[in-house]
Amino acid sequence: MQLKQLANISAALAAASCAVLGQQAQAGTVLDDWQFNSAILLYSETDRVSAGEGVLTARGDFGDDKYLNLGLVVDALTGASATGAVAQPYVQSFTRPSGRGSYEVAPGETPLDDTFHDTRVQLDASWEQPLAPNWRVSGGGHVSKEYDYLSLGLNGSVARDFNQKNTTLSLGLAYSHDTISPEGGIASAFAPMLLRSDFADDDSYQAAFAATRDRADDTKDTVDMLLGLTQVINRDWLMQFNYSLSVADGYMTDPFKLVSVVNSNGEVQQNLYESRPDKRTKHSLYWQNKLHLSGTFLDASYRYMWDDWELTSHTADVKWRLPLGERWYVEPQFRYYQQSAAEFYLPFLQQDEALPQFASADYRIGKMSAYTLGAKFGTKLAAGNELSFRIAMYQQTPENDGVVAPGILAEVELYEKVTAVMAQVSYSF
Fold first, then answer.
1. Which domain holds residue 341?
2. Is residue 388 classed exposed, middle or buried when 0-12, 13-18 and 19+ CB atoms within 10 A define those classes?
3. Predicted confidence (pLDDT) per residue in 282-341, tens digit
4. To pair with 13 at 20 to 30 A between CA atoms, which of 59, 161, 196, 354?
5. Got the DSSP string for 274-308?
6. What's the total number of domains in the chain?
């Protein structure tokens, strides 16, 4: 479940199923008509999450513009994850979501569960071919498995060329069915986090813990749609517009996240498991420009997203590829992201107020800004193979959305920055 931080599988597949239709066939250099792309990514947050990911994709040319695309992703995640509970100026004790084991958090420190780990394996495949003159279709599926999460999906798309292939309209659809089975079961909405030390023996603790569990697992269904327009402006300028729609129905609460209940002095009275709506509809608009400028290549894009959780976001991304001699190039990148808070995001709950219908203290759906600054270095090798190296720094800054922190909460950090570094090696052959 934690690996969802790194990838939104259904959304990525929906986008990929449309984008692949606009790609030109690439000549295979290994195994006759096959082309392979591989990459290894390392990601590390300061004192928090560390992740490693390996990717291998293959594209086979079966003639007559028919292609088979295969992909394998393996990633592992470990480290410390923010629970959503607030920091306090004294030692705090927490029980792990499974109900087995506990840990303590030092005074003034953001509560982090530092023992979680997960591994994900994903397989996907798609087939694309012409349907009629100026028409192309694609269809495929994926399966992704983590320790406590299973995702199955199908996707398909159709594209139509106009204006001597200078204009392409595409429509993509994807469906995914996800099952989450967290260790220890799924907690009831706003169930209290229990401490073993508050009970006389293990039997009474286990009975009380079981009473906070609602069910062993749950599911979520997601339908994604992407409508795209790609336009060749001139020989040096390619432009793309996309509209995306995503409709999700089912379990969207994070079973590992807590929200603290505090008194008028900001002291934690208890920690509750969060609760989120079971429906979400997202929209996004995407605009991309690729330009050839005097031997250099500029790639600039902007995305605006809004949903019925009242969360909106803006993403601007710029990459500029510059030649370094005959074979090497460097590609600096800058990406800026800004989002508003979901309507039910609350950094904490007040003891003297009634419980809301939904509440989450997960900073990932709170107000924030973030930026990525990086560079990619690449070179062309023999037979057209390509080797590249990428390094980047990411910083995320959660922001206060106008909430007044009472008493001792004003003395601790409620909106802690997250800084990460990323390194990637890619090889195409």
1. 2-428
2. middle
3. 999 999 999 999 999 999 999 999 999 999 999 999 999 999 988 999 999 999 999 999
4. 161
5. -B--SEEEEEEEEEEEEEEETTEEEEEEEEEEEET
6. 1
